[in-house]
Amino acid sequence: MVKFPYLKPSGEAGFKDSYVVKAHEIVKKWDGEEKVKGIGLLGAPLSKPSISLSGASQSPGVIRSMFSSLSTYAIEEERDLETERITDFGDVEMHLTDIPECHKRIYETFSEVLKGQPEMIPVVLGGDHSISYPSIKAFSEQKEKVGIIQFDAHHDLRNREDGGTGNGTPFRALIEEGIIKGDQLIQIGIRNFSNSRPYHDYGKEHGVTVYTMKDVRQQGIEELIQKSIAQLKEHVDVIYVSLDMDVLDQAFAPGCPAIGPGGMSSDDLLEGIRMLSSEPIVKGMDIVEIDPSVDFRNMTTKLAAFVILTFMLHRQ
Questions:
Q1: For residue 148, what are the β-bridge partners?
Q2: What is the pLDDT of residue 11?
Protein backbone atom coordinates (compact mmCIF):
# COMPACT_ATOMS: atom_id res chain seq x y z
CA MET A 1 0.00 0.00 0.00
CA VAL A 2 1.29 3.45 -0.92
CA LYS A 3 1.46 5.86 2.02
CA PHE A 4 1.97 9.61 1.96
CA PRO A 5 3.53 11.31 4.99
CA TYR A 6 1.04 14.17 5.33
CA LEU A 7 -2.22 12.44 4.40
CA LYS A 8 -4.46 11.30 7.24
CA PRO A 9 -7.95 9.74 7.23
CA SER A 10 -10.78 12.25 6.95
CA GLY A 11 -12.97 12.91 9.96
CA GLU A 12 -10.18 12.85 12.51
CA ALA A 13 -9.28 15.73 14.82
CA GLY A 14 -7.51 18.60 13.07
CA PHE A 15 -4.52 18.42 15.38
CA LYS A 16 -3.04 15.28 16.86
CA ASP A 17 -1.36 15.55 20.26
CA SER A 18 0.49 12.34 21.04
CA TYR A 19 -0.49 12.67 24.71
CA VAL A 20 -4.23 13.12 24.13
CA VAL A 21 -6.75 10.46 23.11
CA LYS A 22 -9.86 11.87 21.47
CA ALA A 23 -13.20 10.21 22.12
CA HIS A 24 -13.81 9.37 18.46
CA GLU A 25 -10.81 7.01 18.67
CA ILE A 26 -12.73 4.64 20.97
CA VAL A 27 -15.77 4.52 18.65
CA LYS A 28 -15.51 1.46 16.42
CA LYS A 29 -17.84 0.18 13.72
CA TRP A 30 -19.52 -3.13 14.45
CA ASP A 31 -17.87 -5.91 12.46
CA GLY A 32 -21.14 -7.76 11.89
CA GLU A 33 -20.34 -10.64 14.25
CA GLU A 34 -18.91 -9.41 17.56
CA LYS A 35 -20.98 -9.76 20.75
CA VAL A 36 -20.98 -6.34 22.40
CA LYS A 37 -21.02 -5.89 26.18
CA GLY A 38 -20.63 -2.11 26.39
CA ILE A 39 -22.40 0.79 24.75
CA GLY A 40 -23.73 0.36 21.22
CA LEU A 41 -24.80 3.34 19.12
CA LEU A 42 -27.88 2.99 16.93
CA GLY A 43 -28.93 5.84 14.65
CA ALA A 44 -32.56 6.66 13.91
CA PRO A 45 -32.33 9.67 11.55
CA LEU A 46 -36.02 10.53 11.30
CA SER A 47 -37.63 13.96 11.67
CA LYS A 48 -40.55 13.98 9.21
CA PRO A 49 -43.12 13.30 12.01
CA SER A 50 -42.02 16.44 13.89
CA ILE A 51 -44.73 18.99 14.69
CA SER A 52 -42.08 21.73 14.44
CA LEU A 53 -39.91 22.22 11.38
CA SER A 54 -36.93 20.01 12.16
CA GLY A 55 -33.68 18.78 10.69
CA ALA A 56 -33.21 16.28 13.52
CA SER A 57 -32.58 13.57 10.93
CA GLN A 58 -29.08 15.04 10.60
CA SER A 59 -28.37 14.66 14.30
CA PRO A 60 -26.90 11.13 14.55
CA GLY A 61 -24.03 11.96 12.21
CA VAL A 62 -23.29 15.30 13.82
CA ILE A 63 -23.33 13.88 17.35
CA ARG A 64 -20.81 11.26 16.23
CA SER A 65 -18.58 13.96 14.77
CA MET A 66 -18.54 15.77 18.12
CA PHE A 67 -16.56 12.94 19.73
CA SER A 68 -13.49 14.26 17.93
CA SER A 69 -13.72 17.48 19.96
CA LEU A 70 -13.76 15.69 23.34
CA SER A 71 -11.00 13.73 25.06
CA THR A 72 -11.38 10.40 26.86
CA TYR A 73 -9.98 11.72 30.16
CA ALA A 74 -12.38 12.64 33.00
CA ILE A 75 -10.37 14.84 35.32
CA GLU A 76 -13.00 14.95 38.08
CA GLU A 77 -12.80 11.18 38.52
CA GLU A 78 -9.16 10.94 37.36
CA ARG A 79 -10.25 8.16 35.01
CA ASP A 80 -9.45 7.64 31.36
CA LEU A 81 -11.82 5.86 28.96
CA GLU A 82 -9.09 5.23 26.39
CA THR A 83 -9.25 1.46 26.90
CA GLU A 84 -13.06 1.38 26.68
CA ARG A 85 -15.07 1.01 23.50
CA ILE A 86 -18.25 2.34 21.92
CA THR A 87 -19.54 0.11 19.13
CA ASP A 88 -21.35 1.88 16.30
CA PHE A 89 -24.03 -0.18 14.55
CA GLY A 90 -24.84 2.57 12.03
CA ASP A 91 -28.17 4.13 11.05
CA VAL A 92 -31.53 2.74 10.03
CA GLU A 93 -32.30 3.61 6.41
CA MET A 94 -35.53 5.57 6.32
CA HIS A 95 -38.28 5.58 3.71
CA LEU A 96 -38.48 8.94 1.93
CA THR A 97 -42.20 9.55 2.49
CA ASP A 98 -43.82 6.76 4.53
CA ILE A 99 -43.64 7.57 8.26
CA PRO A 100 -45.26 4.33 9.55
CA GLU A 101 -42.79 2.43 7.38
CA CYS A 102 -39.93 4.36 8.99
CA HIS A 103 -41.16 3.44 12.48
CA LYS A 104 -41.54 -0.16 11.34
CA ARG A 105 -37.95 -0.22 10.07
CA ILE A 106 -36.65 1.19 13.36
CA TYR A 107 -38.62 -1.38 15.35
CA GLU A 108 -37.62 -4.36 13.20
CA THR A 109 -33.95 -3.36 12.98
CA PHE A 110 -33.54 -2.66 16.67
CA SER A 111 -35.42 -5.86 17.57
CA GLU A 112 -32.96 -7.92 15.56
CA VAL A 113 -29.91 -6.07 16.88
CA LEU A 114 -31.01 -6.32 20.51
CA LYS A 115 -31.95 -9.98 20.11
CA GLY A 116 -28.41 -10.72 18.97
CA GLN A 117 -26.78 -8.40 21.53
CA PRO A 118 -28.39 -9.22 24.90
CA GLU A 119 -25.55 -7.66 26.93
CA MET A 120 -25.24 -4.44 24.93
CA ILE A 121 -26.37 -1.10 26.39
CA PRO A 122 -28.13 0.60 23.45
CA VAL A 123 -27.81 4.36 23.03
CA VAL A 124 -30.19 5.45 20.28
CA LEU A 125 -29.42 8.68 18.44
CA GLY A 126 -32.52 10.41 17.09
CA GLY A 127 -34.18 11.84 15.20
CA ASP A 128 -37.24 13.43 16.71
CA HIS A 129 -39.01 11.98 19.72
CA SER A 130 -41.27 9.79 17.60
CA ILE A 131 -38.37 7.32 17.31
CA SER A 132 -38.73 6.48 21.02
CA TYR A 133 -41.97 4.64 20.29
CA PRO A 134 -40.46 1.92 18.04
CA SER A 135 -37.16 1.96 19.95
CA ILE A 136 -38.78 1.31 23.34
CA LYS A 137 -41.19 -1.17 21.78
CA ALA A 138 -38.22 -3.19 20.49
CA PHE A 139 -36.31 -2.76 23.76
CA SER A 140 -39.27 -3.92 25.89
CA GLU A 141 -39.67 -7.13 23.91
CA GLN A 142 -36.06 -8.15 24.61
CA LYS A 143 -36.21 -7.31 28.32
CA GLU A 144 -38.50 -7.95 31.24
CA LYS A 145 -40.82 -5.18 32.49
CA VAL A 146 -39.43 -1.79 31.40
CA GLY A 147 -39.62 1.51 33.26
CA ILE A 148 -38.91 4.83 31.57
CA ILE A 149 -37.37 8.02 32.93
CA GLN A 150 -38.16 10.78 30.44
CA PHE A 151 -36.31 14.10 30.51
CA ASP A 152 -38.54 16.50 28.60
CA ALA A 153 -40.23 19.89 28.54
CA HIS A 154 -43.33 18.17 27.11
CA HIS A 155 -45.51 15.24 28.15
CA ASP A 156 -45.50 13.74 24.64
CA LEU A 157 -48.91 12.27 25.43
CA ARG A 158 -50.74 13.88 22.49
CA ASN A 159 -53.63 12.06 20.88
CA ARG A 160 -52.90 10.21 17.65
CA GLU A 161 -56.24 10.98 15.97
CA ASP A 162 -55.20 14.49 14.93
CA GLY A 163 -51.94 13.60 13.23
CA GLY A 164 -50.89 9.99 13.67
CA THR A 165 -47.81 8.86 15.57
CA GLY A 166 -45.50 11.88 15.67
CA ASN A 167 -42.90 13.42 17.92
CA GLY A 168 -45.54 14.48 20.44
CA THR A 169 -47.15 11.04 20.82
CA PRO A 170 -44.54 8.35 21.65
CA PHE A 171 -45.57 7.71 25.25
CA ARG A 172 -49.28 7.91 24.46
CA ALA A 173 -48.67 5.23 21.82
CA LEU A 174 -46.73 3.02 24.24
CA ILE A 175 -49.52 3.28 26.83
CA GLU A 176 -52.40 2.82 24.36
CA GLU A 177 -50.79 -0.27 22.85
CA GLY A 178 -50.15 -1.83 26.26
CA ILE A 179 -46.38 -1.80 25.88
CA ILE A 180 -46.12 0.07 29.18
CA LYS A 181 -48.55 1.16 31.86
CA GLY A 182 -48.58 4.73 33.04
CA ASP A 183 -46.97 3.87 36.37
CA GLN A 184 -43.90 2.68 34.45
CA LEU A 185 -43.25 6.24 33.19
CA ILE A 186 -41.63 9.09 35.13
CA GLN A 187 -41.30 12.50 33.49
CA ILE A 188 -38.74 15.04 34.70
CA GLY A 189 -38.48 18.68 33.65
CA ILE A 190 -42.00 19.32 32.34
CA ARG A 191 -42.39 23.10 32.18
CA ASN A 192 -44.84 25.94 31.95
CA PHE A 193 -46.49 27.05 28.71
CA SER A 194 -45.33 23.92 26.86
CA ASN A 195 -48.32 21.60 27.45
CA SER A 196 -52.09 21.53 27.88
CA ARG A 197 -54.35 20.54 30.78
CA PRO A 198 -55.96 17.56 28.94
CA TYR A 199 -52.58 15.89 28.46
CA HIS A 200 -51.55 16.55 32.06
CA ASP A 201 -54.88 15.05 33.13
CA TYR A 202 -54.30 12.04 30.85
CA GLY A 203 -50.96 11.43 32.53
CA LYS A 204 -52.43 11.65 36.02
CA GLU A 205 -55.36 9.39 35.10
CA HIS A 206 -52.92 6.73 33.85
CA GLY A 207 -50.56 6.91 36.82
CA VAL A 208 -47.68 8.77 35.11
CA THR A 209 -45.37 10.48 37.62
CA VAL A 210 -44.70 14.08 36.59
CA TYR A 211 -41.94 16.25 38.02
CA THR A 212 -42.06 19.82 36.72
CA MET A 213 -39.21 22.29 36.51
CA LYS A 214 -40.50 23.73 39.79
CA ASP A 215 -39.85 20.32 41.35
CA VAL A 216 -36.35 20.30 39.87
CA ARG A 217 -35.64 23.75 41.31
CA GLN A 218 -37.13 23.11 44.73
CA GLN A 219 -36.20 19.47 45.38
CA GLY A 220 -33.02 19.22 43.32
CA ILE A 221 -32.16 16.75 40.59
CA GLU A 222 -30.38 14.36 42.98
CA GLU A 223 -33.49 13.86 45.11
CA LEU A 224 -35.75 13.44 42.10
CA ILE A 225 -33.50 10.82 40.52
CA GLN A 226 -33.21 8.91 43.79
CA LYS A 227 -37.00 8.93 44.20
CA SER A 228 -37.54 7.91 40.58
CA ILE A 229 -35.15 4.96 40.75
CA ALA A 230 -36.58 3.76 44.06
CA GLN A 231 -40.15 4.03 42.73
CA LEU A 232 -39.45 2.17 39.48
CA LYS A 233 -37.46 -0.57 41.17
CA GLU A 234 -40.68 -1.64 42.89
CA HIS A 235 -42.44 -2.19 39.54
CA VAL A 236 -39.92 -2.90 36.77
CA ASP A 237 -36.89 -5.01 35.90
CA VAL A 238 -34.96 -2.54 33.73
CA ILE A 239 -34.99 1.23 33.15
CA TYR A 240 -34.72 3.05 29.83
CA VAL A 241 -33.80 6.74 29.79
CA SER A 242 -35.39 8.91 27.10
CA LEU A 243 -33.61 12.25 26.83
CA ASP A 244 -35.37 14.96 24.86
CA MET A 245 -32.77 17.70 24.73
CA ASP A 246 -35.43 20.40 24.90
CA VAL A 247 -35.68 19.65 28.62
CA LEU A 248 -32.74 22.06 28.75
CA ASP A 249 -33.13 25.80 28.87
CA GLN A 250 -32.64 27.42 25.47
CA ALA A 251 -29.40 28.95 26.77
CA PHE A 252 -27.88 25.46 26.99
CA ALA A 253 -29.51 23.82 23.98
CA PRO A 254 -30.09 26.32 21.16
CA GLY A 255 -30.23 23.50 18.62
CA CYS A 256 -33.60 22.10 19.71
CA PRO A 257 -36.61 22.68 17.43
CA ALA A 258 -38.80 23.52 20.46
CA ILE A 259 -36.40 25.67 22.49
CA GLY A 260 -37.79 27.70 25.37
CA PRO A 261 -36.94 29.48 28.63
CA GLY A 262 -37.28 28.08 32.13
CA GLY A 263 -35.59 24.76 31.41
CA MET A 264 -32.94 22.64 33.05
CA SER A 265 -29.24 23.51 33.20
CA SER A 266 -26.65 21.28 31.59
CA ASP A 267 -25.11 20.71 35.04
CA ASP A 268 -28.39 19.30 36.39
CA LEU A 269 -28.84 17.10 33.33
CA LEU A 270 -25.31 15.70 33.55
CA GLU A 271 -25.72 15.02 37.27
CA GLY A 272 -28.94 13.15 36.53
CA ILE A 273 -27.22 11.09 33.83
CA ARG A 274 -24.31 10.37 36.17
CA MET A 275 -26.67 9.05 38.85
CA LEU A 276 -28.72 6.98 36.41
CA SER A 277 -25.72 5.43 34.68
CA SER A 278 -24.33 4.18 37.99
CA GLU A 279 -27.50 2.11 38.51
CA PRO A 280 -27.20 -1.43 37.06
CA ILE A 281 -30.95 -1.45 36.42
CA VAL A 282 -30.52 1.25 33.74
CA LYS A 283 -30.02 -0.64 30.47
CA GLY A 284 -30.65 1.76 27.61
CA MET A 285 -31.08 5.36 26.50
CA ASP A 286 -32.12 7.54 23.59
CA ILE A 287 -31.18 11.14 22.80
CA VAL A 288 -33.61 13.05 20.60
CA GLU A 289 -34.79 16.44 19.31
CA ILE A 290 -31.61 18.16 18.13
CA ASP A 291 -31.62 20.04 14.84
CA PRO A 292 -27.98 20.68 13.89
CA SER A 293 -29.03 23.14 11.18
CA VAL A 294 -30.20 25.66 13.81
CA ASP A 295 -27.61 24.86 16.48
CA PHE A 296 -25.04 27.46 17.52
CA ARG A 297 -21.40 26.34 17.30
CA ASN A 298 -22.58 22.72 17.82
CA MET A 299 -23.45 23.50 21.45
CA THR A 300 -26.34 21.04 21.59
CA THR A 301 -24.76 18.16 19.66
CA LYS A 302 -21.53 18.47 21.65
CA LEU A 303 -23.54 18.29 24.87
CA ALA A 304 -25.21 15.12 23.55
CA ALA A 305 -21.78 13.54 22.94
CA PHE A 306 -20.75 14.69 26.43
CA VAL A 307 -23.87 12.98 27.83
CA ILE A 308 -22.88 9.68 26.17
CA LEU A 309 -19.35 9.83 27.61
CA THR A 310 -20.76 10.69 31.05
CA PHE A 311 -23.16 7.76 30.78
CA MET A 312 -20.25 5.51 29.84
CA LEU A 313 -17.95 6.84 32.56
CA HIS A 314 -20.19 5.89 35.45
CA ARG A 315 -21.42 2.47 34.27
CA GLN A 316 -20.87 -0.22 36.89
A1: 185, 240
A2: 62
Q: What is the pLDDT of residues 129-144, one digit of tens each?
A: 999 999 999 999 988 8
pTM for the predicted model, two decimal places:
0.95
> Mapping DSSP to helix (H, G, I), strand (E, B) and coil, where does residue 96 land?
coil
Beta strand 73-74 pairing with 79-80: antiparallel
Among the listed residues 116, 113, 173, the one whose alpha carbon sits nearest the alpha carbon of residue 148: 173
Give me the phi and psi of 59, to 5 degrees please: -65, -45
CA distance 158 to 144: 27
CB 253 within 8 A of CB 289: no
| DSSP at 270 | H
- Distances in Å between the Cα of 30 and the Cα atoms of 71, 92, 99, 183, 312 are 22, 14, 27, 36, 18
Q: Give 178's contacts (C-beta < 8 A, 6+ positions apart).
A: none
The answer to whether 38 and 84 have CB atoms below 8 angstroms apart is: yes
Residue 181: closest CA among 151, 217, 155, 207: 207
**List of residues 6+ apart from 223 with CB closer than 8 A:** none
pLDDT at 15: 76
Residues of the chain with pLDDT under 70: 1, 11-14, 316
Q: How far apart are CA 48 and CA 279, in angstroms?
A: 34
Domains of the chain, first to last: 23-313 (3.40.800.10)
pLDDT of residue 3: 77
The CA-based diameter of the chain, rounded to the nearest angstrom, is 67
